[in-house]
Specification:
Oligomer: single chain
Order of helices and strands: EHHEHHEHHHEHEH
Strand content: 5-15%
Helix content: 40-55%
Radius of gyration: 16 Å
CATH architecture: 3-Layer(aba) Sandwich
Distance between the termini: 22 Å
Largest sheet: 5 strands, parallel
CATH superfamily: 5'-nuclease
Number of strands: 5
CATH class: Alpha Beta
Mean pLDDT: 95
CATH topology: Rossmann fold
Length: 171
């Protein structure tokens, strides 16, 4: 059974641009049910990007929703995927002729989730699919895009709507 590994922008762009929490309850109910069923998961680095160190009254609505509706088990520990992370890191460094040093450093930054999302999927290539709103940009020099790395490693990658179609889900 395929498991969909969702990137930070799955939540952030949905909330900010397409499915605001105060308007599209059915989208968020569907996300909650898919998370409870284990069909969608994410990683600890995504949790860190979504959650902040703000005081309770300063937390945004998305963070509050995630804390209230996603179990701690939803965000998987990435400490066990260092072999895969090494492969992704080596790939990024090997592309120094294409990407700027700043792009590589950002992609591999300790607080950045992208390389870890890809590595988590790579660690179980036959059963994991990356879900991101990023769009492939193979000629980019200033930014390493998740789809381009997934393509290099033959990791299935899709956007949110494609995931819902694959799952046969509507909301």
């Amino acid at each position: 059974m395929a498991i969909y590994v969702v990137d930070s922008n799955f939540f952030i762009q949905a909330h900010r641009d397409y499915y605001p929490l105060d308007v599209t309850f059915s989208f968020w109910d569907k996300v909650k049910r898919l998370a409870e069923s284990g069909l969608i998961i994410s990683i600890d680095k995504v949790r860190e990007e979504l959650y902040t160190n703000k005081k309770e009254e300063e937390k945004d609505e998305l963070e509050k929703w995630c804390r209230a509706n996603l179990s701690n088990d939803f965000f998987k520990d990435t400490s066990q995927i260092m072999t895969s992370y090494g492969q992704v890191s080596n790939w990024a460094v090997s592309k120094s002729g294409q990407y700027t040093p700043a792009a590589i450093n950002e992609f591999l930054g300790v607080d950045e989730a992208d390389a870890f999302v890809i590595s988590y999927a790579l660690s179980d290539l036959n059963n994991r699919i990356v879900v991101t709103q990023e769009v492939s940009s193979p000629d980019s020099k200033k930014s390493i895009k998740i789809p381009d790395v997934c393509i290099a490693f033959n990791i299935p990658v899709m956007n949110t709507i494609q995931m819902f179609r694959n799952l046969g889900e509507t909301f």
